[in-house]
Structure formats: structure tokens, C-alpha cells
């Protein structure tokens, strides 16, 4: 399925999966108290994975060999593999975790996410749905919705993302819902959803980034440029917002404007600027970037 450039996982650092926090209950809780929540980001190994996923993965592989009945090292190996985009290895580690603790919701969601990124959409949906037997969590619906969207079932994805948005309150959930509405042919509905996201989080550039991509794809270059500029106004030094503006400028034929935007990014992030420049050079100006995210 051909998709506008904004249909991708928004990542602000190499390791962070912004849209995937995978909350699950992991501890018994007394009457009247809220259950503790476990997420990939709150795993005991999270800081190590963030600092050096390769070293962390090697360390926890050694621990797993010494303690084959301990689920914790397997979860950390899966997390490190996801951080390195080694999704097949993440699936293997999560599967080992499930062999230790059948039905562990965190392991199921980690495997679902990895399978989604590998394109095994039906298997990913199955894992995410299994995780819902333990806890009703928005991120399971996030994964299911993204799988449905990649399978071409935008209308099913709309409802998945609607549940995700209602459960999580995340602006990103609304942005994906708007994308699904637009893809299903309801452009007015998509724009309305993005505008609601703008009102809900007036300092977040995310809705404008989504709008820029879809509007450009629809041929409304002026509106796309305006959306990209508003995103930059909210986060002037962000590689994400400046990258969006540079792409819209480049695709619109404004090579000098795109070059100036890349130079602006280089002031604060030379590596991101170099990657953006390479992206612009390899991307035909008449095509919109697509991604498997």
C-alpha cells in the first residue's frame, strides 16, 4: 500500500519507540489500589539499553544463559533487539520469554511490535489480541490498527486507533486515526481529527507534520508548506520538524529553501542534517517518501 511520508514510527532518539510503551500489569495489588505498570521504558535494563543496546544485549544474553528460567533477561534482550531494529531476534527473545511465562502481556506486545515491523501482520494482531486478555491497554490497539492499515483495511484501523486514543489520550493516537480516515477516503474527517489534536496539544508539532505529508500528497503544496512551517515554529531545532519542511520544500522544487533548512539543522545536529541531505538527494522530487513504520 502506498502511503504518505508521515506514515512511519516517530523516533526522537535512535532507541526510543515513542508510540510503544506497552503497559501491562505485572504485580498483584491489594484491594482498592492501582496495579503497577510495566513498560519497555521502565524495565530495570532500560537505561543500559538506551545507552548502548549492543552491549546491553550481550550482557543479558550471558545472564539468560546462567539463569534460563528467569524471564527478565529475555525481556531485556528483546528490548535491546528492538532498539537495534533487529526484529527477528526480538521475536525470538520474546518467544523464549513466553516459554518461561506463558501469557506475559509485555512479552506478547513486544513480539507483536517486532512482528508488525517484520510485516507479519496477522501474527502481530494475534499476539496483540492475546495480550488484551491480561489487560485492556491502548498500545495493543495501536499495533492492531497499524497492522490493519498496512493490510489495506483503513476502516478497521480507524476504530482501532479510536480505542487507542480514548485509552491513552495520546496526540499521536489521534494523528494515526486521522491518517486512517484520510486513507479511507474521508479527508474532511482526517483534517478534523488532526485539528482536534492541535487543540488538545497546542505546543506539539506532530499534527502539523502529519498534515504536511498528506496535504502534499493530495497536491495542496501551499497548505503542506504552511503546516510544515507551523511545525517548525513550535520546535525550531527539531530534526523531525526541519526534516518535514526541507522535504516539502524539495518536493515543491524549492531547492534553495531546502538547502537553507538543512543548513539550519546542521547548526544543532550535524549528523541529522547529513542524513536529511542524503535523503533529499536520493528521493525523487515527484515522489513522496514511504516507510514501513
What does this 3D model show about the protein?
The chain is mostly helical. It folds into two domains: 20-169, Serine Threonine Protein Phosphatase 5, Tetratricopeptide repeat, CATH 1.25.40; 190-293, Alpha Horseshoe (Serine Threonine Protein Phosphatase 5, Tetratricopeptide repeat), CATH 1.25.40. It is built from 15 helices and two strands.
Describe the secondary-structure layout:
Blueprint lengths: L23 E2 L11 E2 L7 H6 L1 H14 L4 H13 L3 H14 L4 H14 L2 H11 L6 H13 L3 H15 L2 H13 L3 H14 L5 H12 L3 H14 L4 H13 L3 H14 L1 H13 L11
Antiparallel strand pairs: 1-2
Helix pairs in contact: 2-3, 3-4, 3-5, 4-5, 5-6, 5-7, 6-7, 7-8, 8-9, 9-10, 9-11, 10-11, 11-12, 11-13, 12-13, 13-14, 13-15, 14-15
Instruction: Using the 3D structure, state the CATH architecture of the largest domain.
Output: Alpha Horseshoe
Main β-sheet, spatial strand arrangement: 1-2
Task: Point out poorly predicted stretches.
Answer: 1-37, 285-292
CATH homologous superfamily descriptor of the largest domain: Tetratricopeptide repeat domain
CATH class of the largest domain: Mainly Alpha
Largest sheet: 2 strands, antiparallel
The tally of helices reads 15
Give the overall silhouette: globular
Number of strands: 2
- The structural class is mainly alpha
CATH topology heading of the largest domain? Serine Threonine Protein Phosphatase 5, Tetratricopeptide repeat
User: Mind telling me the C-alpha Rg?
Assistant: 20 Å
Q: Roughly how many Å apart are the termini?
A: 12 Å
Give helix % range. 55-70%
- DSSP strand content: under 5%
Order of helices and strands: EEHHHHHHHHHHHHHHH
**Average pLDDT metric:** 85
Give the count of structural domains: 2
Amino acid at each position: 500500500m502506498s502511503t504518505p511520508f508521515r506514515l512511519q514510527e516517530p523516533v526522537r532518539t535512535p532507541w526510543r519507540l515513542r508510540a510503544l510503551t506497552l503497559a501491562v500489569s505485572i504485580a498483584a495489588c491489594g484491594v482498592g489500589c492501582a496495579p503497577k505498570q510495566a513498560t519497555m521504558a521502565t524495565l530495570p535494563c532500560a537505561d543500559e539499553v538506551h545507552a548502548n543496546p549492543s552491549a546491553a544485549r550481550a550482557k543479558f544474553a550471558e545472564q539468560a544463559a546462567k539463569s534460563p528460567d528467569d524471564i527478565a533477561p529475555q525481556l531485556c534482550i528483546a528490548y535491546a533487539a528492538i532498539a537495534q531494529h533487529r526484529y527477528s531476534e526480538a521475536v525470538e527473545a520474546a518467544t523464549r520469554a513466553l516459554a518461561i511465562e506463558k501469557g506475559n502481556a509485555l512479552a506478547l506486545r513486544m513480539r507483536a511490535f517486532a512482528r508488525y515491523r517484520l510485516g507479519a501482520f496477522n501474527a502481530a494482531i494475534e499476539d496483540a489480541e492475546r495480550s488484551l486478555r491480561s489487560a485492556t491497554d491502548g498500545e495493543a490497539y495501536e499495533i492492531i490498527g497499524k497492522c490493519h492499515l498496512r493490510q489495506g483495511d483503513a476502516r478497521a484501523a480507524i476504530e482501532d486507533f479510536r480505542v487507542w486514543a480514548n485509552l491513552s489520550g495520546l496526540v499521536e493516537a489521534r494523528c494515526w486515526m486521522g491518517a486512517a480516515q484520510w486513507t479511507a477516503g474521508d479527508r474532511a474527517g482526517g483534517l478534523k481529527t488532526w485539528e482536534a489534536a492541535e487543540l488538545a496539544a497546542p505546543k506539539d508539532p506532530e499534527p502539523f507534520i502529519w498534515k504536511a505529508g498528506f496535504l502534499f500528497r493530495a497536491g495542496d503544496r501551499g497548505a503542506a508548506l504552511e503546516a510544515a512551517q507551523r511545525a517548525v515554529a513550535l520546535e525550531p531545532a527539531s530534526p523531525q520538524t526541519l526534516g518535514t519542511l526541507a522535504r516539502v520544500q524539495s518536493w515543491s522544487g524549492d531547492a534553495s529553501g531546502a538547502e537553507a533548512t538543512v543548513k539550519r539543522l546542521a547548526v544543532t545536529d550535524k549528523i541529522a542534517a547529513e542524513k536529511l541531505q542524503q535523503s533529499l538527494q536520493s528521493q525523487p522530487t515527484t515522489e513522496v517518501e514511504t516507510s514501513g513504520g
